[in-house]
UniProtKB/TrEMBL annotation:
<feature type="binding site">
    <location>
        <position position="468"/>
    </location>
    <ligand>
        <name>Zn(2+) 1</name>
    </ligand>
</feature>
<feature type="binding site">
    <location>
        <position position="437"/>
    </location>
    <ligand>
        <name>Zn(2+) 2</name>
    </ligand>
</feature>
<keyword id="KW-0238">DNA-binding</keyword>
<feature type="binding site">
    <location>
        <position position="434"/>
    </location>
    <ligand>
        <name>Zn(2+) 2</name>
    </ligand>
</feature>
<dbReference type="InterPro" id="IPR014001">
    <property type="entry name" value="Helicase_ATP-bd"/>
</dbReference>
<comment type="function">
    <text>Initiates the restart of stalled replication forks, which reloads the replicative helicase on sites other than the origin of replication. Recognizes and binds to abandoned replication forks and remodels them to uncover a helicase loading site. Promotes assembly of the primosome at these replication forks.</text>
</comment>
<feature type="binding site">
    <location>
        <position position="465"/>
    </location>
    <ligand>
        <name>Zn(2+) 1</name>
    </ligand>
</feature>
<dbReference type="InterPro" id="IPR040498">
    <property type="entry name" value="PriA_CRR"/>
</dbReference>
<keyword id="KW-0413">Isomerase</keyword>
<dbReference type="Pfam" id="PF17764">
    <property type="entry name" value="PriA_3primeBD"/>
</dbReference>
<dbReference type="GO" id="GO:0006302">
    <property type="term" value="P:double-strand break repair"/>
</dbReference>
<dbReference type="GO" id="GO:0006270">
    <property type="term" value="P:DNA replication initiation"/>
</dbReference>
<keyword id="KW-0378">Hydrolase</keyword>
<feature type="binding site">
    <location>
        <position position="428"/>
    </location>
    <ligand>
        <name>Zn(2+) 1</name>
    </ligand>
</feature>
<dbReference type="InterPro" id="IPR005259">
    <property type="entry name" value="PriA"/>
</dbReference>
<feature type="domain" description="Helicase ATP-binding">
    <location>
        <begin position="198"/>
        <end position="364"/>
    </location>
</feature>
<feature type="binding site">
    <location>
        <position position="425"/>
    </location>
    <ligand>
        <name>Zn(2+) 1</name>
    </ligand>
</feature>
Length: 716
């Protein structure tokens, strides 16, 4: 099997003197190229052996396990992706197959002065500043961090300002399961014992670890990790990328005496290579990672934890479209091991599976140490109105004043980056729109730009309206976090305030610094997007104000209410995690909406029940199945024609319904026109064969792409 978008494995000849077993990583010829591949099994025998090309060599790494290979096939079949394409996620670092070479890296040479005539350009200064503290880095890493070419690094080395050192592969620590954890409460003990027993049994089960924020779920699943390590097996913890914080890693290291191996998009090439290889060789007991960590070559996984299992970041929307939580359950099933899905607000899918006893359930009903859950109040924006072109209601302003007066911290939450989501001309009404996407351009005042949040387009804010030419008429509509920060500065000029959003904080390190600064109480008011909704623990934070609680409810998405509930619940969970009780205020135009009512009453199960009834009535997931086809291309007429042909060829029966083709809400995305078809079927229907037959009936021209999304989460 080659890690390329191919449906089938290819046959090769094993040359004399080479021994291969299934799973071996090999190098093989493919046309004029040499590519890596994985021995999948005996050949199909369709080509006579004299015409087969020989395997070039076998890599000296342990073979991919049988479970690993079955997993690739399973994901491919479920998501209707070519298996080779899925395999590519499992061999994502080809260089890891080669034995590591010691690598040249540089330190700053102490006391070295630039030779006469050597000009200290800005890039040169940046590199020396980077090396001021911190580990030795390779020329490529330095160039990347400093945003310059490697020749700049070489120039500094030739001038004698850098000290060359040879880097050995990253050494990963060994977490020690013998270290004692904290003494657990009775509930926590029972939960931990249950998980330990599942790990010890070495057989498949899925359990929902359902507990309010701050109840000690993390402490409890550490016990499951400890049990897996005790058995000499590995543990995998999946986190939504955004929650993978230095705070989490430090906490793990305190518990186990060494950090886990990390796997996420911020790793350097060298870290990826060393980690992949170490996992394959069985040298890594614990991996914590984002969804792609599921595809690492574990020799003998003993437990999987999916923390924040409800988080939609687990759905990969590009390339192979898959849901990492669901695939993790499949991985556990194939490997015969337990998996724990952890959340304070489980997905409806998981909740229904637990209610019907397909999954086991462990509950942690109370916050650790008696901390109480915050009070949630609704602010009715129809009555309690903010002043014109301002966004904070009088009652929220008063609460902020009171909180600051007693020396506590407050957070304002608005899940919208930038200054304003829409810019329009007051003279002619023209709206600034992205030329490549069906989306408005968002003003980022700090960066002095208009930006498209879908394709990344940036342009300066026009002084004159591009439509009518009037000058000084462009006006910002609606708030983003930057605009809320402006209002806060106006209201509380002496308060120390900061914005926390993915575009104002670059990378986990910056987030970590901000989090620490909040923890040290160097800030009074934090204005944040969902970057700050997750996991953090701030004892002095007692007020959370949600600027626009209705934001996620618009758009008619199947899971809009569920997601809004989960997000706001999580945001609310940031308040009152220490000794001081917390208070949460939600600004809404729909205080009677079931989501708002459930949040205010703390009636989680009531909300889930209502939501479940509505989905059951409509035959929607988790009670029915959905699959989407997204037809896209540059030529709108051709896209329309193919979409219509698919519509006519669609499978229809009493139970299977097709919705569309309809223009996608993002009818234009990155310059491609898009049409959607949605297949809706009973839960008992296997949708993959239906879709395969359907696509076989329609000729798809090469200029058109048809993406299949089984169990869609995004309807854009
Ligand atoms: P959750 O994951 O459910 O939000 P955590 O595991 O993060 O909860 O626990 C919340 C806080 O309480 C953390 O600071 C944690 O260290 C602390 N904590 C939880 N259980 C215990 C315990 N048994 N002993 C000491 N501290 C605990
Ligand atoms: Zn765009």
């Amino acid at each position: 099997m080659l890690p390329l978008p191919l449906r089938e494995a290819y046959d090769y000849r094993v040359p004399d003197g080479m021994e291969l077993v299934p799973g071996d990583f090999v190098e093989v010829p493919l046309g004029p190229r040499r590519v890596i591949g994985v021995v999948w099994g005996p050949g199909a025998g369709t080509l006579e052996s004299g015409r087969l090309k020989p395997v070039v060599r076998r890599f000296d790494v342990p073979p991919m396990t049988e479970v690993g290979r079955r997993f690739v096939e399973w994901v491919a079949a479920y998501t209707m992706t070519p298996p080779g394409f899925v395999l590519r996620m499992a061999v994502s670092v080809p260089s890891a197959l080669e034995p590591p070479k010691p690598m040249l890296a540089y330190l700053r040479k102490q006391g070295a002065e630039p030779p006469p005539g050597f000009k200290m350009t800005d890039p040169r200064k940046r590199i020396l500043a980077l090396l001021q503290d911190g580990p030795p880095r390779t020329p490529a890493e330095l160039a990347d961090e400093a945003g310059c070419g490697v020749t700049v690094v070489r120039g500094l080395a030739e001038a004698g300002l850098l000290e060359p050192v040879m880097l050995q592969p990253t050494r990963l620590g060994r977490p020690d399961w013998r270290r004692p954890g904290p003494s657990l409460s009775a509930d926590q003990r029972a939960a931990a014992d249950d998980l330990r027993a599942r790990v010890a049994s070495g057989s498949y089960s899925t359990v929902l670890l359902d507990g309010v924020t701050g109840s000690g779920k993390t402490e409890v699943y550490y016990e499951a990790i400890s049990a897996a390590l005790e058995q000499g097996k590995q543990a995998l913890v999946l986190l939504p990328e955004i929650a993978l914080s230095a705070q989490w890693l430090d906490r793990f290291a305190r518990r186990f005496g060494a950090p886990p191996a990390e796997w996420h998009s911020e790793l350097t090439g060298a870290q990826r290579r060393d980690t992949w290889r170490a996992v394959a060789k069985g040298e890594v007991p614990v991996v914590v990672g984002a969804r792609s960590a599921l595809f690492l070559p574990y020799p003998d996984l003993g437990v999987i934890i999916v923390d924040e299992e409800h988080d939609s970041a687990y759905k990969q929307e590009e390339g192979a479209i898959y849901h990492a939580r669901d695939m993790a359950v499949a991985r556990a099933h194939l490997g015969g091991l337990p998996i724990a899905l952890v959340s304070a607000t489980p997905s409806l899918e998981t909740k229904v599976n637990a209610d019907s006893h397909r999954y086991a359930r462990i509950e942690l009903p109370a916050r650790h140490g008696g901390a109480v859950l915050p009070d949630v109040e609704l602010i009715d924006l129809r009555r309690d109105r903010p002043p014109a072109r301002h966004w904070l209601a009088p009652s929220l302003r008063k609460a902020l004043t009171d909180t600051l007066a007693v020396g506590e911290q407050a957070m304002l939450f608005l899940n919208r980056r930038g200054y304003a989501p829409l810019t329009l001309c007051r003279a002619c009404g023209h709206r600034m729109q992205c030329p490549n996407c069906t989306a408005w351009l968002v003003e980022h005042r700090l960066a002095r730009k208009l930006q498209c949040h879908h394709c990344g387009l940036q342009q300066p804010l026009p002084h004159a309206c591009p439509e009518c030419g009037e000058e000084g008429t462009m006006a910002a509509c609606g708030p983003g976090v930057e605009r809320i920060a402006e209002e806060v500065a106006e209201l509380f000029p002496d308060a120390r305030a900061a914005i926390m959003a993915s575009d104002t904080l670059h990378g986990p390190r910056a987030i970590q610094e901000m989090v620490e600064s909040i923890g040290r109480h160097e800030l009074d008011i934090i204005i944040g997007t969902q970057v700050m909704a997750k996991g953090h623990h701030f004892p002095m934070l007692t007020l959370v104000g949600v600027v626009d609680a209705d934001l996620g409810l618009n758009g008619g998405d199947l899971r809009a209410a569920e997601r809004t509930y989960q997000l706001l619940h999580q945001v609310a969970g940031r308040a009152g995690r220490g000794e001081r009780p917390g208070r949460v205020m939600l600004q809404t135009f729909m205080p009677e909406h079931p989501v708002m009512q459930a949040l205010a009453a703390g009636d989680r199960d009531g909300f889930y029940q209502l939501e479940a009834e509505m989905r059951l009535e409509a035959g929607m997931p988790p009670f029915g199945r959905l699959a989407a086809l997204i037809v896209s291309g540059e030529d709108p007429t051709l896209v329309e024609r193919v979409a219509m042909a698919l519509g006519r060829a669609a499978p229809r029966s009493d139970s299977v319904h097709i919705l569309g083709p309809a223009p996608a809400p993002l009818a234009l995305l990155r310059g491609r026109h898009r049409r959607r078809l949605l297949l809706k079927a009973p839960r008992s229907t296997q949708v993959q064969p239906l879709i395969a037959e359907w696509l076989d009936r329609v000729e798809i021209p090469p200029a058109i792409r048809v993406q299949i999304d089984v169990d869609p989460y995004s309807f854009l």
